[in-house]
Amino acid sequence: MISAFTSSGSSGVRVRNSKNFYSDPIYPVALLILCMTISACSTAPEKKHAAPKRSPPELAKIPDAVPKAEPKSELGNMKTYEVFGKRYFVLDSSDGFTQKGIASWYGPDFHGKKTSSGEIYDMYAMTAAHKTLPLPTYLEVKNLENGRKIIVRVNDRGPFHDNRVVDLSYTAAIKLDVIAKGTALVEIRAINPGSHRGGGAPVETRSRPQEKRTPLDFYIQVGAFSDYNNATRMKNRLLALEAPVRIEETMLNDAPAFRVKIGPLNNIDVADGIVDRLELFDIHDHRILLE
Q1: Which of 38, 117, 201, 279 is 20 to 30 A from 45, alpha carbon to alpha carbon?
Q2: Gyration radius of the chain's alpha carbons
Q3: Residue with more model confidence, 262 or 180
Q4: How many alpha carbons lie under 13 Å from residue 175 in its C-beta half-sphere?
Q5: DSSP state, residue 65
């Protein structure tokens, strides 16, 4: 899969289309050619890739990434960049960053290729990709369905699937028990290396064969409005989805607001289908809510 981007800083961002598609760094000469074919590439169906046929037994024993102070990488930290018509703004700092949403993973097809930071992707290392966090950033990732936690080092950009917040390396996905399902509901939290006191201990996946998954309800938020009438108009637009849509009153910046959200849902594939259909309503800004 070929993908393209533009940025207001240095090039060298390696990007994915959907959850597991990457291209090598794209430079200006290639960009013109790619732009002519981008519409066809960006509408291709998402690839359902399989795990490697042989999983080394020692993978579950690989320790977490150990947070340490590092300078920002020379590549991948431009202020802003664009992928498939959507602009992303890279954060100056990861301090206090938390996020909930859907995680995916990427592995064999990209092993040994360059990441957005210029480093070589190692599917057996404890790394991850994020769209806007500074490179590198250390993250604690918690699988909300089974309670497992890991620490990864973010050294890549993506995933550029509309409904994903983080892409995990193969080993990180093994340790969180994400491989078989392909996705999981997660909470991610940026770690300050100066205050972190964790140990980076290995997670023995084989020690918990009967580990129970807890189905979680979640929502797709499609808007937040200060005016209830605007929220109602949005809700009425979405009736054609034939999915539950509700308006919820909340407080934003010390003022009342009305959130329009689809759900509750408990199936990520169903949520992906709804997100795809939102494009038909010209709705491109949405996010996963877990409550």
Answers
A1: 117
A2: 19
A3: 262
A4: 31
A5: P
Residue 183's closest CA among 128, 276, 105, 271?
A: 105
Instruction: List the structure tokens of 75.
Output: 């590549």
Q: What does the pLDDT read at residue 56?
A: 57
Q: Which residue has the higher pLDDT, 12 or 164?
A: 164
DSSP states of 103-155: EEE--GGGTTSB-TTSPBP-TTSSEEE-SSS-SSEEEEEEETTT--EEEEEEE
Q: Which amino acid is at 32?
A: L
- Which residue type occupies 56? P
Domains, the chain, with CATH or none: 5-207 (2.40.40.10), 218-290 (3.30.70.1070)
In terms of Cβ atoms closer than 10 Å to its own Cβ (0-12, 13-18, 19+), residue 247 is: middle
Q: What is the pLDDT of residue 196?
A: 66
d(CA 11, CA 78): 8
Q: Which of 77, 84, 105 is nearest to 17 (CA)?
A: 84
Q: Contact 16/104 with Cβ under 8 angstroms?
A: no
Helices of type H across the chain:
28-42, 170-176, 228-237, 268-278
State the pairing for strand pair 166-168/98-105. parallel
pTM: 0.77
**Closest Cα to residue 172, out of 127, 116, 213, 235?**
127
Is the omega angle on the peptide bond into residue 215 within 30 degrees of 0, that is, cis?
Answer: no
Q: Which residue has the higher pLDDT, 158 or 46?
A: 158
Q: Cα-Cα-Cα-Cα dihedral of 24, 107, 275, 96, to 10°?
A: -90
Reported as half-sphere exposure (CB side, CA atoms, 13 A), residue 69 has a value of: 2
For the chain, the straight-line distance linking the first and the last C-alpha, in angstroms and rounded, comes to: 35
The residue count for the chain: 291
pLDDT tens digits along 2-17: 333 444 433 344 444 3
